[in-house]
Amino acid sequence: MARNLARILGGCGSLVPFMKTPACPPRNSSSIPPARTLVQMLFSKSRDFSLPNSSWGEEMMRLYEFYNGQSDVETEGEENQGREWKRLPSYNRSLKYATGGVYLSKIIQSKARLFTRNIREPGAAFEYVLFINKEKERCVCVFQAGHLLEGPPGHVHGGAIATMIDTVTGTHASAISAPVMTANLNIDYRSPIPLGSTVLIESTLEKTEGRKLYISCKVTSTDGSKRHTDATALFVSISVAHLLKG
Ligand SMILES: CCCCC/C=C\C/C=C\C/C=C\C/C=C\CCCC(=O)SCCNC(=O)CCNC(=O)[C@H](O)C(C)(C)COP(=O)(O)OP(=O)(O)OC[C@H]1O[C@@H](n2cnc3c(N)ncnc32)[C@H](O)[C@@H]1OP(=O)(O)O
């Protein structure tokens, strides 16, 4: 941890273009936070947004419990129990993973966050939980769409659906080969998704070719009877340096 911190803080000048905020204020600058705030920023526990909250409806809870019952929860430093699925925790700072467990954006006080996890009001926008089955090369996401995602009256905006497909396939690709960037995303919208409903988003790894990962994805009603959306995505593995270059 200390080594990671030193490395990141030592190199923070190079992060300026990426974060668009002054990463290294001059010494004695009044913008340096008090020591207590710094300690809180570095060590405060972050919230895992993929756990149930009071906004989750009956169907969301039922499916969460179904997959969670067959899952090992991914916790740092703990052994896998050998179950089929694994719930992936979801924080509002994706760089946690790219920096070996250190919240880079917290340290430099950037506002950079994962936007699907930026809306604080429970149930207002993206409520979702992702499970991965590495053996079967599949991911499943249970997604409940809140009222802020309205596009056509009473239905979910196509951009919000694209966001969720990118998130599910991107998280899937990251779990196989982190970090990655979306290079291509193709979407066929087949039937609208009612606002407030819970749907399943399933992704499958089709093939890998060197740094390229090809993933397919479908969005269906939770009983599988209605096909809402089909998609294919291409992800390219990148170095962390590429990510910070911006
Ligand atoms: C924001 C990323 C966060 C990552 C954080 C890390 C871990 C995250 C942990 C958990 C995950 C949490 C949340 C995930 C949620 C969402 C994921 C969202 C991801 C995004 O929302 S991300 C934003 C949108 N995304 C971009 O902003 C990309 C802009 N772009 C580039 O940054 C470059 O363009 C790049 C890197 C794609 C490639 O650049 P490059 O220089 O590394 O590689 P190069 O160009 O050589 O391509 C290598 C091979 O891919 C082929 N290829 C490339 N592009 C292609 C295309 N479009 N169609 C067909 N083939 C293509 C080439 O033809 C070649 O193929 P070949 O090797 O066979 O010749």
From TrEMBL:
Annotated keywords: Apoptosis, Cell membrane, Cell projection, Cytoplasm, Fatty acid metabolism, Hydrolase, Lipid metabolism, Membrane, Mitochondrion, Mitochondrion inner membrane, Transit peptide
Species of provenance: Oryzias latipes
A single GO cellular-component term on record: mitochondrial inner membrane
Substrates-to-products reaction catalysed: dodecanoyl-CoA + H2O = dodecanoate + CoA + H(+); hexadecanoyl-CoA + H2O = hexadecanoate + CoA + H(+); (9Z)-octadecenoyl-CoA + H2O = (9Z)-octadecenoate + CoA + H(+); (5Z,8Z,11Z,14Z)-eicosatetraenoyl-CoA + H2O = (5Z,8Z,11Z,14Z)-eicosatetraenoate + CoA + H(+)
Domain Thioesterase: 154-225
UniProt name for this protein: Acyl-coenzyme A thioesterase THEM4
Membrane topology, from the record: Peripheral membrane protein
One Pfam assignment: 4HBT
Family: Belongs to the THEM4/THEM5 thioesterase family.
Subcellular location: Cell projection, Ruffle membrane; Cytoplasm; Mitochondrion inner membrane; Mitochondrion intermembrane space
Listed GO biological process terms: apoptotic process; fatty acid metabolic process
EC number: 3.1.2.2
PANTHER family the record matches: ACYL-COENZYME A THIOESTERASE THEM4
Example GO molecular function: hydrolase activity
